[in-house]
Design brief:
Length: 182
């Protein structure tokens, strides 16, 4: 598959956090992303579903530019990307736009730092309830609906009780989540 200049423009606004750099977590992360993008839970992501998901994340892509790239990964007689196709598309985009290389050291710590930066939208070193709610909304998650519910999420990991999550608290929470899911 050839990546055109238009394809590169379409993804040029994305941050380095788009890349999934920890090999041990790639499949899990990609499955979660796939499930989020698969609006009707039919096991397929259509071009329209992918376009809508990218828009929710602030990566507005022209569907006419997105369509040929995505369709080149859809198997004959299918109406969308199965997980394997989605993973192949992700790998190709990673190699085309990032050289398949990571600018960081690939350690779990640096992955967590990148993830933290996605949530810490104002860069002050803390995740507030409003920042968490904004990210949850962009992902289309129902938990974003009421600020009170989001504040409870913050309180559940806020070990120093300052009403926000610092990197240490975020790291502890993520390690707990990853240990439970393994």
């Amino acid at each position: 598959m050839e990546i055109t200049t238009n394809d590169k423009k379409m993804f040029s606004r994305q941050s380095s956090s788009f890349r999934l750099r920890s090999p041990s977590l790639n499949a899990l992360r990609l499955h979660r992303i796939f499930d989020l993008f698969d609006e009707n839970s039919d096991g397929l992501i259509t071009v329209e579903e992918l376009s809508q998901a990218l828009s929710r994340l602030g990566l507005d892509a022209d569907i006419s530019e997105l369509k040929p790239t995505v369709e080149s990964f859809i198997k004959p007689d299918e109406t969308g990307l199965r997980f394997e196709d989605f993973a192949a598309l992700h790998k190709t985009l990673d190699e085309s736009f990032f050289g398949g290389d990571c600018e960081c050291d690939g350690s779990p710590e640096s992955d967590l730092e990148e993830a933290f930066k996605v949530f810490d939208q104002d860069g002050d070193g803390f995740i507030s309830a409003v920042e968490l709610q904004n990210v949850l909304k962009k992902l289309g998650l129902p938990e974003a609906g009421e600020i009170e519910q989001v504040e409870k999420m913050i309180v559940s990991v806020d070990s120093n009780h300052d009403g926000r999550v610092d990197f240490f608290e975020f790291k502890n929470m993520m390690q707990t989540v990853l240990v439970r899911s393994s």
